[in-house]
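Dear colleague,

Thank you for sharing your sequence with our group. We've completed the structure prediction you requested, and as agreed, I am returning the results in plain text so they can be pasted directly into your records. Please verify that the sequence below matches your submission; if there's any discrepancy, let me know and we will rerun it promptly.
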Amino acid sequence: MLSILTLIFVVSTAYAGLWPKGTYTLVKPKAGCPFGWKEGWRDQDNEDSRNRNSITWGHHFYGTFGVNMMFHYCTKDEHVISGHSDWPRGNYCILRQGISCPPGFGTGSILWDDEDRNSNSLGGVLPSGEYGENTLINYCCRSDGLARKRISLPKRKPFYLLRFRSHCQQVKGMLVREEIVLTDDEDTRNGNRVSGDHPMNDGGVNNRLYYCYYH
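Please find the predicted structure tokens below.
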């Protein structure tokens, strides 16, 4: 009897350390991607004239950040071993991978009107979107729980979520730090736009997103 209980505990603990089922993308931190996830990057050529890009001092993003912004991404596909659970209820966003979001999320997008004469580039596996002269990224967001109610997610490595309609979602056993990214987008006939359920964004001619770093 004791051995059966021990086995159940070991299996439960193992699954607790696995990411929710489904396919999705997270922004890559300096600590790296979860084991087995696919990686990719997008280099956005932002406004050239009097560029005002900014990023929280001491941030933990993996990439290159100056007058242009290069973010890296971690994508979990159907071949990665995952837990049996869906994403927990809460108030947060992840990045969409594929044609739909995991159960419980609404979908939306943000368009960055990059510099008109730009040298945008990319590589690897990226979140769902459009990557040409401008950058459009699709997101999955939910607000079916309280941000202050701690949710269970793997805590063996740091990771990022995004704010949706509240403060940063609390996660069991982890500290959280808000990190803000402002991109100075095209000044002339700016075409920035948002749609659907998208991360908190000041909007306007420049996009400002609020990331939550868990460690």
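Summary note from our side: Helices lie at 2-16.

Kind regards,
the structure core
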